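Hey, quick one: can you model this chain's 3D structure?
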Amino acid sequence: MVGLVTAPLDLRLDDFEVAEVFEAPLAFLLDPANHQRNHVQFDGRERYYYAIPYRHHYIWGATAGMLMNLYSFLTSPADRDVR
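Sure thing. Here's the predicted structure for all 83 residues.
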């Protein structure tokens, strides 16, 4: 889900799911120069994942994947019917 929020925001985090909360500028997250596609060997297979390093943070895995989907959605041709 993508939305606009107004500060202050009262977040209730699940320690099992969330290690840290921080803000990153949308312009930074949508800049292709900041996108990485990395790979690792796991169970004898090469696996690929996205990453977006930001300052001392390393956004990767599902979070980076969701941001890449958002990037694709926002940068794809505007001729689709979105309701």
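One thing worth noting: The first strand starts at residue 36 and ends at 42.
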